[in-house]
Design goal:
The chain is mostly beta strands. The protein has one domain. 12% of the residues lie in helices and 48% in strands. It has two helices and 20 strands. The strands form four sheets. Strands 3, 4, 5, 7, 10, 13, 18, 19 and 20 form a nine-stranded mixed β-sheet that branches. A hairpin with a 4-residue loop joins strand 4 and strand 5. The chain is globular, with a radius of gyration of 18 Å. The relative contact order is 0.12.
């Protein structure tokens, strides 16, 4: 299927409002839910067909106007099914105007045996805008002992500010050529996640990275570390043994990121 989703959010007084919404199956979006009185809203990005099929070509475009604050998530993990007709493709572009805030926190990807995924997320920041971005995946249907049976998993995250690239992260896993389960790869873990925090020069990003790395040292559910990136930001990577641990870890990291970047308390999205 060739599905598309287009959303636009604007700041109206103290509130963020969804002003434009267009979609075609298999992509949809929930009604926006106001959060914690801060003027932010949460929207669930939906796929009522249950997952991505081979040959799907999906496009998502989201615009945040000046001062808008949006939390984007999914109701559950994204399943990628066996492909007999080319990879599943999902390309997402999110544009932030000045002083906009994006929190992009989809659940992880579960690649089924024989599946192939080509995923791209492009986030374009402007002056004063900030973002927390999460991307995670499983090595397969772990509960069924179906690990590393997919054909290919290719994901890319590209972040720019004022038209200049500031971060690019590419992951391409082809288990038929190399199974990254050992040293230098997953090292025995079943789930992995990357979180990127982007802001301005008002934070000491080296100190922020050290604080997150210290948090990992005290967490028994995950292994991970953080590092500062140029032009204002912090990159976090972690690995866990179970989906439950991945959820606990990413929620805790998100809470710490919200406090650090936005000066706001944690949120409970109540998806369980």
């Amino acid at each position: 299927m060739n599905g598309c989703l287009s959303l636009r959010f604007e700041r109206h007084g103290p509130c963020t409002v969804l002003t434009e919404s267009r979609s075609s199956l298999p992509l949809q979006a929930s009604k926006p839910m106001e959060l914690d009185g801060s003027g932010s809203v949460c929207v669930m990005l939906l796929n009522p067909t249950g997952g991505l099929l081979g040959g799907d070509c999906l496009t998502t475009e989201i615009d945040l106007a000046q001062g808008a604050h949006v939390v984007l998530t999914t109701p559950s993990a994204t399943k990628v099914y066996r492909s007999n007709s080319g990879p599943s493709k999902h390309h997402t572009t999110i544009n932030l105007a000045e002083d906009a805030v994006l929190e992009y926190l989809p659940d992880h990807i579960i690649p089924h045996p024989g599946s192939s995924l080509d995923q791209l997320l492009s986030v374009n920041l402007r002056s004063g805008s900030r973002a927390i971005i999460l991307d995670g995946f499983a090595e397969g249907r772990v509960a069924r002992q179906e690990m590393w049976l997919f054909e290919e998993l290719k994901t890319e995250l590209l972040v720019s500010r004022n038209g200049q690239p500031i971060f690019r992260d590419r992951i391409r896993i082809r288990p038929g050529a190399w199974t990254p389960s050992g040293l230098g790869g997953m090292e025995g873990a079943a789930y992995a996640a990357t979180m990127l925090i982007c802001g301005g020069s008002d934070l000491d990003w080296n100190e922020t990275a050290n604080a997150f790395t210290g948090w990992f040292l005290g967490d028994s559910n995950s292994v991970g570390a953080a590092s500062a990136i140029a032009n204002g930001g912090c990159l976090l990577r972690c690995q866990t043994d179970s989906a439950h641990c991945l959820t606990q870890t990413t929620r805790a990291l998100w809470a710490k990121a919200r406090h650090t970047l936005l000066g706001q308390p944690s949120l409970e999205l109540r998806k369980d």
